[in-house]
Design goal:
By secondary structure, the protein is mainly α. The protein has 18 helices and 6 strands.
């Protein structure tokens, strides 16, 4: 915790920040893009009665509706053009990564470098459009079947309403996909993660006010509210501690003689994070679980037949939901770690530059040792993710009045994205300081 506080203090060195023009431009661009996103979450779909829709969503509080609304930043509850949010893109990215692991053609395409990566990204965009179209049509049909005592939610149902709804939702998702890529390239932080992060943070004050109001009316006891606040602080501290935890493997480089001088002989560290996959596994797991629940929740016959069974058994807080959620988190923790870190490639690079781990022979033995260490770390990291995400869900199952925004998944996303963004700001400041030192050294050299 002390090191995190020191990094945060050094990052926000206002003297250095005031001189970092490029960083300020990136921050302003990121802030402007997130403001545009938040404005879009208030632009409603055409042909819907907002009063009736609000009454229907109020009756469906707790469970699926709140979970979907959490990841849409409140856009689903207001049924706006960003109601699908960025989830179709995340689902398409999951499918592409799974296919890359099993398809030799896509695997070869991935190894082609920048050109291959662009093609895979293009396929992901096509998949996003397809998934958004299917989900958008499901939402349009579901809206036509929604009604309250005051009347139906859709003013004029029919083909025209379905077409405009699908076009609006698909256009909103594509725009958010483009906006996230622009934030990543021209702003600070990961654009997709920041979009989800801003939606959660924007609704945290509302969730806090609702919780305090429920405490005042007696729906939640004051002791439970105090316990929630203490638990939230403890979970945040635990997340920060684990996200910064590393296993450092000593790497030794042999001495080399070039002419009359000796080079090398120093040792360095190969840092392996305890949670290499980061916040990706919970987001991926939630995205996959939301796909069938979205279809079930927005279909006219969601309370009957097969869809009713899905809603009943895979609803948030249900035992089957908790088991599937944990299993998916563990699977994606190992899967994503295998994608971002290849022990064989790392061992080959160490051997290429003459580096070796003391006591381990270079080559295959080093790769096996790295795989062994990484597997043990991933087991601990997957267990940490499962505990953080599942314990608040169990607590919510006992008391449905607790808002989703105090869940482990939302806290994990908020804390992890904040840490990643702060780390990027810190790296930009360091790069600016190095540039300043280089310029000063060049000026001094000219004066001499």
């Amino acid at each position: 915790m002390a090191s995190a506080a020191e990094q945060l203090a050094s990052t926000f060195n206002f003297g250095a920040f005031a001189k970092a023009t490029e960083l300020k431009k990136r921050l302003w661009f990121t802030l402007g893009a997130l403001v545009i996103y938040r404005i879009g979450t208030y632009i409603p779909l055409p042909g819907i009665d907002p009063t009736i829709l609000s009454d229907i969503f109020e009756q469906q509080r707790g469970g699926l509706t709140d979970m979907l609304n959490l990841f849409s930043g409140g856009a689903l509850e207001r049924m706006t053009i960003f109601a699908l949010n960025i989830m179709p893109y995340i689902s398409a990215a999951i499918i592409m990564q799974l296919m890359t692991a099993v398809s030799p053609r896509l695997e070869a395409l991935k190894k082609e470098g920048e050109a291959g990566r662009k093609k895979i990204n293009q396929y992901t965009r096509y998949g996003t459009v397809l998934l958004a179209t299917v989900q958008g049509y499901g939402i349009a049909v579901g809206l036509e079947g929604m009604a309250s005592s005051a009347g139906p939610a859709v003013i004029d149902p029919g083909f025209f309403f379905r077409a405009t709804t699908v076009i609006s939702l698909v256009g909103g998702t594509i725009f958010l996909m483009w906006l996230g890529e622009q934030i990543t390239q021209r702003g600070v932080g990961n654009g997709i993660s920041l979009i989800i992060f801003s939606g959660i943070v924007a609704n945290l004050p509302v969730a806090l006010v609702q919780t305090l109001d429920q405490s005042r009316t007696g729906a939640i006891s004051p002791a439970l509210v105090l316990f929630l606040l203490i638990m939230a602080v403890a979970v945040i501290a635990f997340i920060v501690f684990v996200e910064r935890a590393q296993r450092r493997l000593v790497v030794q480089y042999p001495k080399r003689q070039m002419g009359n001088k000796m080079f090398g002989g120093e040792s360095s560290h190969l840092p392996l994070k305890l949670n290499t996959a980061g916040v990706i596994p919970p987001i991926f797991a939630s995205s996959i679980l939301l796909m069938p629940l979205t279809i079930a929740g927005f279909s006219g016959g969601a309370t009957q037949g097969f869809l009713g069974t899905i809603t009943a058994y895979l609803g948030p807080g249900q035992p089957l939901y908790l088991v599937v959620y944990v299993a998916m988190i563990v699977f994606f923790a190992f899967f994503y770690t295998a994608i971002v870190f290849n022990p064989a490639d790392t061992a080959d690079n160490l051997k290429k530059y003459g580096g070796f781990i003391p006591g381990i022979r270079p080559g295959k033995n080093t790769a096996d040792y790295l795989d062994f260490v990484l597997t043990r770390l991933t087991v601990a990291g997957a267990a940490y993710l499962a505990i953080v995400c599942i314990l608040p869900e169990i607590l919510r199952a006992q008391n449905a009045a607790i808002p989703f925004y105090f869940g482990g998944t939302s806290l994990l996303i908020v804390v992890s994205v904040t840490m990643d963004t702060v780390a990027q700001i810190h790296s930009h400041l360091l790069a600016h300081q190095y540039e300043g030192l280089i310029k000063k050294s060049k000026l001094r050299g000219r004066r001499r």
